[in-house]
Write a structure and sequence with these properties.
Blueprint: H1 10-26, H2 32-37, H3 39-62, E1 65-70, E2 74-79, H4 81-102, H5 116-122
Antiparallel strand pairs: 1-2
């Protein structure tokens, strides 16, 4: 597998690390074996969360459409590249976050206590 050799800016690295910590805390009740298996998902989810924030800032500053020129006399507008990247990445991020949250133990269903059991068990027997 070829990795991108571009260095990550220190401020982005710090944001990614903070997001990794946040997600890891949210998954604190997941068993250690599962955490090791999903380490890559956690790192990718953190990267995507930070990148999505950056893309949102760019779209807020520059808008969501860009102009293009095909040839000498053909001009128009289209979705900006940031919008297309954002749309793809948000779907992937949502999928990963669902996978991670599905790992959390299911809370036992709370029984609805209507008081009947306590009443019956608390009565004096005659």
């Amino acid at each position: 597998m070829t990795r991108n050799k571009e260095p990550v800016a220190p401020d982005k690295r710090a944001k990614i690390d903070a997001e990794i910590d946040r997600i890891t805390k949210l998954l604190s009740d997941v068993d250690a074996k599962s955490k090791k298996i999903v380490d890559s998902l956690i790192r990718n989810a953190a990267f995507m969360a930070v990148t999505l924030d950056e893309l949102q800032e760019t779209m807020n500053e520059n808008g969501v459409v860009s102009e293009y020129q095909n040839g000498e006399n053909q001009w128009g507008t289209k979705k900006s590249p940031e919008v297309e990247i954002y749309n793809t990445m948000i779907k992937n991020h949502s999928t990963i976050m669902k996978q991670l949250t599905d790992l959390r133990p299911k809370a036992p269903p709370k029984s609805k206590d209507d008081g009947f059991e306590g009443f019956v068990n608390g009565r004096e027997r005659t």
